[in-house]
Amino acid sequence: MNFVESINLKKKVMKTKTLLCILFSLVSTFDVISQKYYYISDAGNFQQGPYQILRYNEDGSNGKVFIKDGLAWPQDILFLPDSNQVLISNLSSNSVESYDSESGTYKKRLISGILGPTRMKIGKDGMLYILQWLGDGKVKKYKTDGSFISNATQSGVNTSIGMDWDQNGDLYVSSYNGKFIERFDTDGKSKGKFISTGLFGPTNIAFNSDGQLIVLDYNSGRVLLYDKDGKLIKVLFQGVTNCEGIHLANDGNIIIGVGSSVRIYDNNNVFQKYLVPPGENGLRNANAVVCREMITSDTEEEHTEKKSNHFLMSLGANVYIVSPNADDITMINVFDVKGQLVFTFDVSKDTVLDLSDFNNGVYFARTNGMKYYNKTQKVIVAK
Q1: How much is the pTM?
Q2: What does CATH list as the number for 303-381?
């Protein structure tokens, strides 16, 4: 190496060190104020209505009608990441409608021609997955702008109305009339029935943090827990006929729609209270329960002693790993500077958080867990 090359190498090393120091100095942990709202899709009298989307504060207060226009047997509610849109799937109109996420004002028809859309989820690839009650029963995959990509499954599931992914990326879909849960690999090929007996009309399904599958059995009025092999572990609770719509809260509570009410059960499966009492705000048939979290203040208080509370450690530019000391974190939500949720990171599936595809700017990563609950770390995306 000649003298000039040596000088250039030293300059490059110093520049890299300086950039890393700047990035580290911009990463801090602080307390923020957040708000959670619950949104409930009301199927009304099914084919006849009336239909509505309700909104409640986290404690069940301030309940009001959020959306009434453009609904036709509404099913699921989905807030799009990094957008001011909330999507509602409508079974009767074979469409997905878009609304303003703050005011509930109608925007546009995002997707049409899908036959009886029910559940919607954003996959790990950032794409929009939608179930069909009618038609070929295949799971449909879209871009978040409504552009169709492909069928996400090679075969269909009739009257499909519940879906979730396990830790390996396999997709599970429930069939209400078929009374089974089917599993698909990452290529969309069926791996057969995951649960084929003991169900009388499954609706929502959801994996908990232990990798166990929770199944709402609408017709039998039970909520069931299954292991990774599809074997029944236990009945979590019963006497919840017409159960549909579920949210698994960070504190272990389970919030489910039960007919004309929404109920909260604790982590010991004991009924605690009504989030929505029977019939309040005209609720007839809850069929989706969605929680939305918003950061409402980004006021920073920098304290040296809080450095030990960092739960993300830098692996390089825009790539972080979850600290091994943060063993109680289950999920990390990433918000933009406006407080909008842009990404949800499942720590049980991966511990490396790669923000390389994000736009340049400031983001806030907030934990979901017990020890580190309400800890927020500011991260900078700089490319």
Answers
A1: 0.76
A2: 2.60.40
